[in-house]
């Protein structure tokens, strides 16, 4: 393990750098996760079939709320099936009513039932 590059770490404050874009995105995920009780440790967690062995589907349920996480582990976009229902993208805050959607290469979605 090499020495920590503090000069690179300082770039996290500049939104024009890779470090800044990654840091901002991670902070957004932390904020969403901290604001939702569905991410508590006592939530029921399971996996579900997305219709593709390249996309992991994770379901969290708690007190009538339901969360779906879709994680694409391939370098190709993949079309997956969603369980019946209406969903809201927790990051982009957009509504999704389709029964399937495309997950970008190495991308993910955090969806909450509405």
Question: What is the helix fraction of residues, given as a range?
Answer: 10-25%
Low-confidence spans: pLDDT under 50, at least 5 residues? none
> What would the average pLDDT be, to the nearest integer?
95
Distance between termini? 45 Å
Shape: globular
Main pleated sheet: 6 strands, antiparallel
User: What kind of oligomer do you see?
Assistant: single chain
Work out the number of β strands. 8
Strand order of the largest sheet: 1-2-3-8-5-6
Number of helices: 2
SSE ordering: HHEEEEEEEE
Overall SS class:
alpha+beta
**Rg, alpha carbons:** 16 Å
β-sheet strand percentage: 35-45%
Draw up the topology in text.
Elements: H1 6-9, H2 18-35, E1 44-48, E2 55-62, E3 65-72, E4 78-81, E5 87-89, E6 95-96, E7 100-103, E8 108-113
Antiparallel strand pairs: 1-2, 2-3, 3-8, 4-7, 5-6, 5-8
Structural summary, described in words:
This protein is an alpha+beta fold and 114 residues long. The chain is built from two helices and eight strands; from the N terminus they run ααββββββββ. The chain has helices at residues 6-9, 18-35, and strands at 44-48, 55-62, 65-72, 78-81, 87-89, 95-96, 100-103, 108-113. The radius of gyration is 16 Å and the shape is globular. The mean pLDDT is 95.
